[in-house]
Amino acid sequence: MGQSDLAIDRAQRAVRLSLFDFLNYQSYNALAILLSHTGRYAEAHDALRSSVQLNPSFSVARAFLAAILVLLGRNIEARTEAQQVLALDPPFTVRRFATTRGNRTCRISTSCRRLA
């Protein structure tokens, strides 16, 4: 098992073990980021939907979701999600998002730029 697979396995375990944890949205968000880095965008999308469902006001998950939707070719949904991000975090910018997330989300932040 490679390092990415191990990290995904651990994140999935965290999700399973924290079913009633009010912070479980963060576990789903972490899982989604790991899945996206391995190109598993459909699975990342599902994890982000869970994160957003658990905490609709968590703009970071919504920003990642918008980017994943672009990578999945679902641009109309991505724009709707991006509008939600701006409603929750009016000063949000892709530049700030990419800078605070570092190179780890380079492909995702590039996708966000397509929405601009």
Question: Which key phrases capture this entry?
Answer:
76% helix, 7 helices, mainly alpha, 0% strand, single chain, Serine Threonine Protein Phosphatase 5, Tetratricopeptide repeat, 116 residues
Question: Can you describe what's shown?
Answer:
- This protein is mainly α and 116 residues long.
- It has one domain (3-115): Serine Threonine Protein Phosphatase 5, Tetratricopeptide repeat, CATH 1.25.40.
- The protein has seven helices and no strands.
- It has helices spanning 3-17, 24-37, 41-54, 59-71, 75-88, 94-101, 106-115.
- Helix 1 (3-17) runs antiparallel to helix 2 and helix 3 (41-54) runs antiparallel to helix 4.
- The model has no long low-confidence stretch (mean pLDDT 83).
Through-space gap between termini: 38 Å
Total domain units: 1
Rounded radius of gyration (Å): 13 Å
Strand content: under 5%
Give a short overview:
With 116 residues, the chain is mainly α. It is built from 7 helices and no strands.
